[in-house]
Write a structure and sequence with these properties.
The structure is a single chain. With about 130 residues, this protein is mainly α. It has 5 helices and no strands. Helix 3 runs antiparallel to helix 4, helix 3 packs parallel to helix 5 and helix 4 runs antiparallel to helix 5.
């Protein structure tokens, strides 16, 4: 695998929150109001809408550390194949995280959340070890 794979993963991770945004907007009990989306979201009674919104927020929170970890690993000279594998694992974990969030499966959701975090920590640690 190449560094391009990791960069495509950064793009995928950047777009993933918007997948959950669309799910939240489509699963509401009333038609989505783009004039005041936060108030619309607050009015929704659907548990699915709330869970999709939570998945969206969590995906936005996870993205910056992941993107920084990929860039820092590349700048430090970490093997590109290793970066790509960890980036793919992160994206897969984050995708599953959203799916498990929507399905209200707390234990598997937490497991894949930790897997994603482990990918970020590993990328950052690899970068630190290479330049040490």
């Amino acid at each position: 695998m190449t560094l391009a794979t990791a960069y495509w993963c950064v793009l995928a991770a950047a777009l993933l929150p918007y997948v959950w945004t669309v799910v939240a907007k489509l699963s509401g009990g009333e038609r989505f109001d783009n004039k005041d989306p936060r108030a619309w979201l607050a009015r929704q009674k659907s548990r699915g809408t709330a869970r999709a919104n939570a998945a969206q927020l969590n995906a936005f929170e996870a993205f910056p550390a992941f993107a920084a970890a990929v860039v820092l690993a590349q700048l430090a000279g970490v093997d590109h194949g290793r970066i790509a594998v960890l980036a793919l694992a992160f994206v897969l974990a984050r995708l599953l995280h959203g799916v498990f969030y929507l399905a209200d499966r707390a234990t598997p959701r937490s497991i894949v959340w930790f897997i994603g975090l482990a990918c970020v920590i590993t990328l950052l640690a690899q970068a630190a070890l290479v330049v040490a």
